[in-house]
Amino acid sequence: MIKLINNDAAFNALNPFGIRIKALYAAYGGTHLCRFYQDTLSGAVLAKYGDLLIIDSAVPVSEEIMDFCSVLGVKTILCSGEFELDKGKSAEGYILKYQTSERLQKQSDNMILLNDGFREIYSLLSDSFDSSQLDFSDFYVDISHKVRHGCASSALVFSGNNPVSCAVAPFVSDSGAVISAVCTDKTYRQMGFGRCALLSLVDNLNSIGVSDIYVQIEDNSLLNFYCPLGFNVAGTWQEIKV
């Protein structure tokens, strides 16, 4: 049976899916923006976030959960890539986990703004991704709300007065975080600014007690960027179109 969750007792946040769900509950639990469920048979926890359903499960996703997706009206499922589902994958890739205990040297001569500068971060993100998928108002309201509630974090790096690179973790719980993007202005790439943004964000997360830090990549070439900075492959993820 799948039941509605009204508290966070079922959230373990032991992987990027659980961290996403726990962070969303801390930010939007009790509102109409997200709904949270648990499959009492398998223990799987689900979060409906817009038209996305995030599934945190230690066992393969059941047919009951898949049928429940149709009832909820979700368009996309995000879950572990280890599960074989009778649906077409729209995206997939590696989960990387930050595992180094060695403090890596950042560029120290650049100004770094933590948890602020969201308009500049939006500009960097929209230049790197499809801007039609990223509305500024939605982005600003969401990220600023999450940061105020301790459920997100960001780092913005400047070269002089110019914002040139950012790293964003839109899902932060008490022990874990999921980084979604590291972007650098085209003019300033291959100069170490992305590295500086990422490590500044990691350092800030570590400083507030967040130890399990993940990033999900779709482009395997990004392994060449993340792995030398202490991230190692820890699993796979997939998105399924319903």
Q: Topology, pairings included?
A:
Blueprint: E1 2-4, H1 16-28, E2 34-39, E3 45-49, E4 52-56, H2 63-72, E5 76-80, E6 89-98, E7 112-114, H3 118-128, H4 136-148, E8 153-159, E9 162-169, E10 171-172, E11 176-179, E12 181-184, H5 193-207, E13 212-217, H6 223-226, E14 231-241
What does this structure look like?
- The chain has 242 residues and is of the alpha+beta class.
- It has two domains: 92 residues; 139 residues, Aminopeptidase, CATH 3.40.630.30.
- 27% of the residues lie in helices and 33% in strands.
- It has six helices and 14 strands.
- It has a ten-stranded mixed sheet, with helices on both faces. Strands 7-8-9-12 form a four-stranded antiparallel sheet, with helices on both faces.
- The longest helix is centred in the last third of the chain and has 15 residues.
- The protein is globular and about 55 Å long.
- The two termini are 21 Å apart.
- The model has no long low-confidence stretch (mean pLDDT 90).
CATH secondary-structure class of the largest domain? Alpha Beta
CATH topology of the largest domain: Aminopeptidase
Q: What is the first-to-last residue Cα distance?
A: 21 Å
Q: What spatial order of strands do you see in the largest sheet?
A: 1-2-3-4-5-14-6-13-11-10
Order of helices and strands: EHEEEHEEEHHEEEEEHEHE
Mean pLDDT: 90
Estimated helix fraction: 25-40%
| Main sheet: strands, sense, barrel | 10 strands, mixed
Low-confidence stretches: none
The rough form would be described as globular
